[in-house]
Amino acid sequence: MMCETTDGEPDQSTDTGGTGAGADTGGEDVDGAELAQFSALLEDSTEDLYDNAPCGYLSTLMDGRIAKVNTTLLDWLGFARTELVGRKRFSDLLTVGGRLYHETHFAPLLAMRGQVSGIALELKGADGARLPVLVTSQVKTGSDGQPLLIRTTVFDARDRRAYENELLRARKEAERAHAEAEAARQVAEMERVRLRQVVAVLQSSLLPPSLPQVPGVQAAAYYHPASVDDLGGDFYDLFALGADRWAFFLGDVCGKGPEAAAVTSLIRFTLHAALLHAPDPVAALTLLNTMLHERYTGDDPRYCTVIAGTLTPRDGDFDITVAAGGHPPAMLLRANGTAEQVRTPGGMLVGIMPTPRFTTAATTLAAGDTLLLYTDGLTEARTRQGPRYSEDDLHIFTQTLAPAGAGQTITALTALLESFGDGLEDDTALLALGIPAAGADSDVA
Fold first, then answer.
1. How far apart are CA 3 and CA 409, in angstroms?
2. Per-10-residue mean pLDDT for the chain, 445 residues long?
3. Which of 213, 215, 211 lies closest to 223, judged by CA?
4. Does the N-terminal or the C-terminal CB of the chain have fewer CB atoms within 10 Å?
5. Max Cα separation, the chain?
6. 8 Å CB contact between 68 and 81
């Protein structure tokens, strides 16, 4: 308790009851000490803050002579204060390129605007080392508006330069990788074009360059490769057996690629020779089966589906005999507007069994009739609605075409194949033989 003395001054003694202020001053004394220590930390002089700032400071006269520089910048550059103040200009600290930029851009822009900010330059240290920096300068004017000096702040940009260099290196590396990838892509594209050309040449060698003219018969063919990058195994041919007989065949070898192409070539020439010398199509398929079964045994069997036949003129019509080995039946478009399948029941794949069974079917082509042969690329294509095209679908389609000549039939089927788009997953070969109706041309399509 504070009391007054007889002379009227306050009594500074402590209350014996311990209830006075002095009884609990420990906490307040500690808080005061901390506050005093914190205040002492804040009592840095302005000069010290300038001299040891985390960035460089310097002041220059209007002619560029250095009038003041802080310790931070001196430490960065390795100069003594006496080496710079009053002895060098700011531009003397710059590299050759930096001085040129200072004279042509930096100084004129500063004189015009009174301030420039964030200019990337390089300063030269006492040892010749370069220090990348960002510079901001401002002209200080007097009360009369006249310029007195230039204050410049310098920021160490070494970390930024390293980051920029890393970005540049990464960019160059990315550009180099992109250039290499582009070069590789171009090489691959050139190789792909070359491969396509090779495939096209090889594919054309597996097919007759053109169909021969058969007196009284219109012949037309079409081949659709499922891929321009791979060799297919479909084949067909039409050739003379003598003065008045002709042979034809159409087939499909299992597989794709060079191996399938080699088998296709062998089959074509074997079947061609067999039909020239065998008495009928069944004998020709039997010879072909023997060759395939004996040549391709073990783990690499090769087989094919084939339909082969002969064409013999008789009284203006043509007798046709066909035999098939595992091949879809031929379609016969009649002049009366109907279409029917020419079936050879029991025909087995060619090359699978040592002694297969092949059967023949005979029919007659009259004026206005057309015989159509095809591979299963047509009857197994996916339609846009989802289900695959079938032999029954083809039967219905040809009924809508009949009567149609060989050229008309192939043209209609070509459009049908194109309508499948990506659904046409396999190669497709078509061969049509027709007897022109009375008054129609009998040219070769």
1. 131
2. 41 44 47 69 75 93 94 95 94 93 93 93 94 94 92 91 80 90 87 69 72 94 77 87 92 82 88 92 95 82 92 94 94 95 88 90 96 92 80 92 95 92 84 86 45
3. 211
4. N
5. 164
6. no
**Residue 138 token pair:** 């401002």
Query: What contacts 312, CB < 8 A, 6 or more positions away?
Result: 244, 245, 246, 318, 319, 320, 321
CA distance 15 to 3: 9
Q: Where are the alpha helices (DSSP H) in 249-361?
A: 257-277, 281-295
Query: Within 13 Å of residue 11, how many CA atoms lie on the same side as its CB?
Result: 10
| DSSP calls for 82-101 | HHHTTT-BGGGGB-HHHHHH
In angstroms, what CA-CA distances link 354 with 9, 269, 288?
Answer: 139, 20, 11
Q: Report how far apart, in Å, the C-alpha atoms of 169 and of each of 129, 134, 160 are.
A: 22, 21, 14
For CA atoms 289, 291, 296, 297, give the dihedral sign: positive
Helix (H, G, I), strand (E, B) or coil at 68: strand
Q: Strand locations in 317-389, DSSP E?
A: 317-325, 330-333, 339-342, 360-365, 370-374
One-letter amino acid for residue 129 of the chain: A
Give Cα separations from 218 to 221, 431, 444 (angstroms): 10, 11, 5
Q: What sign does the dihedral 201-207-213-216 (CA atoms) show?
A: negative
Structure tokens at 146: 């006249």
353 neighbors 293 (Cβ within 8 angstroms): yes
Contact between 365 and 435 under an 8 Å Cβ cutoff? The reply is yes
Would you state the structure tokens that stand for residue 268, as one six-digit string?
């074509």
Grouping H, G, I as helix, E, B as strand and the rest as coil, residue 185 is helix
